[in-house]
Amino acid sequence: MTKEDTLFRRRLEDLIERSDRIGYPVYSDFLDGGQRLIAETLSLPPQIRMMFIGGYEDAERVIAAFYPAFFNYTMDNGVPEEDMDHPVRALDIRLKAAKFVHKVPGHRDYLGALMGLGIKRETMGDILVHEGGAVLITLESVSAYIQESLTSVGAAEVIVDPIPLADVGKYIPDGQEKIIDVSSARLDAVISKTFNMGRSDALQWVRSGRVHLNWKEMLQNDKAVKAGDLISVRGKGRIRILEEVGTTRSGRIKLKIEKFGS
Questions:
Q1: How many other CB atoms are found less than 10 A from the CB of residue 197?
Q2: CB 71 within 8 A of CB 51
Q3: Does the pLDDT of residue 199 top 60, yes or no?
Q4: Which run of H or E residues covers position 153?
Q5: Residue 61 dihedral angles phi and psi, to the nearest 5°
């Protein structure tokens, strides 16, 4: 564990201690995949619980909520129950006159516009780009500022309004189930086959840090994947490995996957 990881772990342990001391929930900023894995290794006292909140099920960026066990909170499809006073909010960023926009903004455009306003990455969760704009998951502390200040993304004018967290799921496209065959169940092989790119291109995608396996950046292209794994490929989409369903006559492995994105 690096020095930075150790300091981050201590910050989380401080949140646990604070929740125990005040008898009330406390929350972290948004965590990336590596930070989430660190949080998952924490030893919690029996009277404290931990919950990850990202605005929807399978969110990549989440906050860690630490709370006394007597609150007995529950989640439904990644959304906490209404009684939980958490700081996660959702904003709908809609393109004005979307059909006349010459260059439709992508994830990088939205992120750049937000950071150009001085919004720190740790206050923002996932950005879900859809046909008419994007949904931003963010902290309550910056949501009002974003609503007031974000008027354009690239050359496109936008309107920003809050939406209920429970509605975020409406903006997530259904996954497409398909069967792929690969020479081996390696990360680069699955990415190559799913997104119709060359094996060398898939290798570069992994080595450039644009691939996450189960929320953690993965630079090891020959990492074996298995049922239940979630692969996120920045700029391409996501892959969930559902099951291995056999082999082809030539001995290639047949995997049933669910594909999200392009």
A1: 17
A2: no
A3: yes
A4: strand 152-153
A5: -100, 130
**Joined tokens for residue 14:** 């401080």
Q: Check: CB of residue 231 under 8 Å from CB of residue 239.
A: yes
Mark out the alpha helices in the chain (DSSP H runs). 3-22, 33-40, 107-116, 140-149, 187-194, 199-207
Cβ neighbors of 142 (< 8 A, separation 6 or more) are 119, 123, 124
Q: Residues, the chain, total?
A: 262
**Domains (ranges, CATH) in the chain?**
3-80 (3.30.1370), 88-171 (3.30.70.330), 176-261 (3.10.290.10)
Q: pLDDT value at position 170?
A: 86
CB–CB of 160/91 below 8 Å? yes
CA gap 59, 80 in Å, rounded: 13
Which residues lie below 8 Å from residue 114, measured CB to CB, with a gap of 6+?
A: 124, 136, 146, 150
Strand partners, 99: none
Give SS3 for 165: helix
Provide the terminal-to-terminal Cα distance of the chain, rounded to the nearest Å. 35
Average pLDDT of 159-182?
A: 89
- What pTM does this model have? 0.80
Tokens representing 175 are: 């996954």
Type of residue found at 188? D
Mapping DSSP to helix (H, G, I), strand (E, B) and coil, where does residue 102 land?
Answer: coil
Cβ distance 210 to 233 under 8 Å?
yes
